[in-house]
Amino acid sequence: MALVIVLGIVVLLLVAAVAGVSVSRRSQRRMDAAERSAITQAKPLRPQAPAQVEIVLPPGEDVEIPPQEPVAQEPLPEERVPEEPVPEERVPEEPVPEEPVPVRPRLRDRLGKARELLAGYFGDIRGRSAIDDDVWDEIEEALIRADVGVGPTERILDDLRRRAKEAAVSSPADLLDLLKADLVDTLRAADRSLSFEPGQPNVWMFVGVNGVGKTTSIGKIAQREAAAGRNVVMAAADTFRAAAAEQLQLWSQRVGADLVRGQDGADPGSVVFDAMAAAGNRGADLVLVDTAGRLHTKVNLMEELKKLRRIVDRTPGALKEVLLVIDASTGQNGLNQAKQFGEAVDVTGVILTKLDGTAKGGIVLAVQAELGIPVKLVGVGESAADLIEFDPEEFVEALFAA
Amino acid sequence: MFDSLSDRFESIFTRMRGRGRLGEKEVDEIAREIRLALLEADVNFKVVKSFISRVKEDAAGAELSKSLSPAQQVIKIVHQELINTLGGTTGKLTMNPKPPTVVMLVGLQGSGKTTACGKLARHLKSQGLQPLLVAADLQRPAAVTQLQVLGEQVGVPVYSEPTDPVAVARNARAEAGRLGKNVIVLDTAGRLQIDAPLMDELRRMREAVEPDNVLLVVDAMTGQEAVSVAESFAGTVGIDGVVLTKLDGDARGGAALSVKEVTGKPILFAGVGEKLADFEPFHPDRMAGRILGMGDVLTLIEKAEESFDQEQAVKAAAKLKKGSFTLEDFLEQMQQVKKMGPLQSIIGMIPGIPKELKNTQLDDKELGKVEAIIRSMTPAERNDITIINGSRRLRIAQGSGTTTQDVNALLKQFKMVQGMMKQMAGAGGKRPRFPGLPPGMPGM
User: Fold this and answer.
1) Closest CB from B40, B142, B308 relative to A18
2) Contact residues, B window 246-305, toward A, CB-based 8 Å cutoff
3) pTM metric for this prediction
4) Average pLDDT in the A198-227 region?
5) Fewest beta carbons within 10 Å, which of A117, A344, B37, B260?
């Protein structure tokens, strides 16, 4: 249990540092008792407004929507700033589609713009006659630049070298094919579907760090599911970020889903609780829970997230998915995110967003390989139809598209 | 969990004993290790290449210092080169002698522009300026509302109009004049650098408002593509500086090096938390240590200050000095440490912890075990572990759901910790030194 030694070191250093700082300040400023008692304690969970939860139905239903009460605007002390609205997408001014959800677009087509930039890159390798050091270097470079990570890249290449030898692969084109097959294999998952059991409310919870695209992804999914005829309830459990609920409200109106929200600053747990009740009462099929973005390093916020999960779990069997939303441009920190969120709330799948940029999202290889968490959905554009199922073959193909 | 650079270098340099200079072979090996560390930190592939070649030049043939070990010497060179690259140019906003000064924030979706605008407005206000926030993100519903809420929190007015972003930008100056504001902080919608129409819109906004500062907002956890993003924004719209956000996470932040290297523009500000006050001038030296994975002791200490009860810490420090630090105290302080975040990231911020120790399992379960064992002890046992005989150990093991081996291990380890602390106290309160950690490194 060398943990104790490590902890001992940590405690030693930190106590010495904090006390050291405290002592020198004391002699400098001659703090009095009153000042000392005002010293910041641990950050509390965000202050909670009284739980006033309202249920917002999309217009057209035979219910009067009560007028919105103005939210008290006093500055929240000690509190974090509402994060930037999840901006992955521009909500187009189009009417709710009446026809069924369109045929799933191919990832490769969607990524045309980005892939143009890679055009000819791997074409160079394929055109080579022999597998030389340059070829290996270029493959390594491509993988690293795709954010696969230097450690995993080394492992992949070592493995590839061994297998290429065994299979007596001699042409770069064949080598690439072998590599692709390896990567696709890494990404194989037993089940990539979004878990759903008819006849009961199914809860899909969306978590992740700030700015990745949780709220937007929910909007897209809600549109898809509602169009498929499912009864959808959205829970605006991001009560922290101003206008987060408003944003979700707009989606709910467009797609014909119910929205459960609270006042700004309300306890997110109460929103979840009420959403579960509403879903039960209405016989809803799907409850989509939006949560506030949070860095996985913030202990109190991760505790809050655990609490939200526990509230859903009070209805046994309801929670079907905990989806971690990861921005495709995230580097190696994506793995830390997956680890910490996974440990906290047991993530069932990843939604990889903003893949229509130039980022390749290679971090998902490590997330699957090391943590066994599969990518279930991929965001490749602004509209609802641009949230597509993850296909390992297409993903890998797009990595190496010439 | 990464081995510290110093650990990696130790093995290379044990072979070098007796030689006067850093040989080419060793320099190559060092270069490989540095490359690994930088890539793990998300520094762009090409940027790593050019950085390494610079370091190689500095290191090759350098005379071995008498006071530093070769490992320490190379780390120092690398660290300094990083600081030079990250810093160098003066990081200040350009103020226009004829107000208003215009600052325009641009970047990808989700990078933190709107929040940064609020923080910047607050910062400028605290410097005696009168800012106006301008909400030119009209695409995202509630983006304007968001900025309005921030504006209210900092006491800065917010201007917008429901026409189009270019018009908002164009009319911002008139509004600033009308309200008597001398700085404009302009928020724009997030956009992909490869979205030609939107990048063109940004160009037209720039032409319309003629900013004195265009700041690219970059998320500290961005990976390899930071280069492509920075190059495109710089090429299409032109940028004058960078704001690095979400540094309160545990991303190593190599994107900072990539962006600086590729654009040559200074990183002006760092977003270090969710509160509006969590906005600071960028510290190249702290960033250098963080990118190298060498720990960021200054940030760690700041974090500790926030989480630790200072009263308690002073009392605990006194006990440490006296050598009377008990398991009870240890348990107390552990609670404070837990408040700071995942144990792994805390350890990651402490430079020089021996490799073998860093690789121990550091998850919550193990921590839970340690706590359970201590809690199963009586107060008397916690205050004096020498009284814990065999039958007590058994009782403690049973009470905590662990084994006597676990209890033995804990006691043994804690004795070692007590020994360390006595040493520290004996050394007159100096912090313990860990092997491989060069003197003069920040905080140590």
Assistant:
1) B308
2) 246, 248-252, 254-255, 273-276, 278, 300-301, 304-305
3) 0.78
4) 95
5) A117
